[in-house]
Amino acid sequence: MDMVIDFPGGTRVDAHFGAFTVETDQPPTASAPTPFEIFLSSIGTCAGIYVLGFCQKRDLPTEGLRIVQHVARDPQTGMVARISLDIQLPKGFPDKYRQAVIQSAQLCAVKKHIEHPPEFDIITSLN
Fold first, then answer.
1. pTM for the predicted model, two decimal places
2. CB crowding 9-35: b at 16 or more within 10 Å, else e
3. Which of 82, 80, 87, 92 is nearest to 106 (CA)?
4. Residue pLDDT, tens place only, 5-35
């Protein structure tokens, strides 16, 4: 999949792919999330897709289901050191599915790519 990244003005940087546009911006006058915030949100939302799908396939309750993502940074480097996902299950959720819900979140493609990162090639060209 190819994406086109453009610069619509100010500190905005947008990504276009298919019929979608992902808008990003930088503080202090940000009008959209930063690219890194979108990256972090992709972890929780990806896990959420797997958790929701697991529940829906088994007709399990999803009202009130949510994931709270905690990001801990290394105080010396400022880099993300740990990401924790707290899958908050609705009342009455069957105990026998709790571990399976965790295993479904482990299938997240974003998480797998972080654990086994791709190689990067960065070049320049003239248009």
1. 0.90
2. eeeebbeeeeeeeeebbbeeeeebbee
3. 87
4. 999 999 999 999 999 999 999 999 899 999 9
